[in-house]
Amino acid sequence: MVERLPVALSAGLLAGVWVWGSDSFALSTWAGFLGCSAYSALGEHSIKGVLATWAATLSGVFWAWVVFFGTDLLGGAGSAVLTGLVTAAMCLQAAQRLLAFIPAAFIGCCVVFALNGDVASAWLPLMLGAVMGFGMSRLGDLFARMLPFTSAEESK
Fold first, then answer.
1. Which residues cross the membrane (predicted)?
2. CB within 8 A of 9, min separation 6: which ones?
3. Using CA atoms, how far apart are residues 24 and 75, in angstroms rounded to an integer?
4. Most buried one in 35, 60, 149, 152, CB count within 10 A?
């Protein structure tokens, strides 16, 4: 259990900062946590991981916009067809290395759906959440080096 202390400290600290900051700037708190979760699940704990998380989650935001925009044009039945096409597109785009993490695309898409199509409220918290995940990773590594009874390797 003690080997998880650096991760717990960094996650707890930055989660609290995120809740305060997102509330202060009227950003979706939960969407930011989903961006953080997408970053963490990707497993590439670096700037490259942040960029890949941004690309994949924001592609999902785009695809959700396609569904909402298309449904406005085509009507209710168009929603089902567009959702099927967009789902396939999010899987197919994974052939591109930067968009390979399919779950992050679905997370971005789902955030827009949960916000009733409000793309403007979705993209920034997702992006900041990925940055928060990067910060948790780096801060956890720092805490692991600082605490005498843990090591950076054990905390991962």
1. 62-86, 98-116, 122-140
2. 139, 140, 143
3. 37
4. 35
